Amino acid sequence: MHIPYTVNLAAPAPATWEFAVQVIREDIVRAAEVGAPFAVTHPGSHTAKSTPEQGLDRIVAALERCRDVFEALHGRANGGSDAAAATSGPAAAASDAAAGDPDRCGPGDVPA
What we know:
By secondary structure, the protein is mostly helical. It has 3 helices and 2 strands, in the order αβαβα. The longest helix is centred in the N-terminal third of the chain and has 20 residues, at 14-33. The radius of gyration is 12 Å and the shape is elongated.
């Protein structure tokens, strides 16, 4: 199951970020209820209002709040144009920091 593209775990606006965390948690639970083997989400965009590092920090914080239900993180957002975790390094860092298990987070279609 793919979580809606409107979710932005890297969002600098607190209300947008809290909404993203809520949607992720609810949709992962729904995926399990319908028997989906996993749920995938894009990390989101840090936007022009923050740095990529700040966006990555917000992604990690969001995943930490979803650790009990988190499944998989896709490597891109917006076709890769502004993904806070658009490289395997940040995706791996988010995985390691939040999920504690790098096998639970894949790079998706991260460019080489």
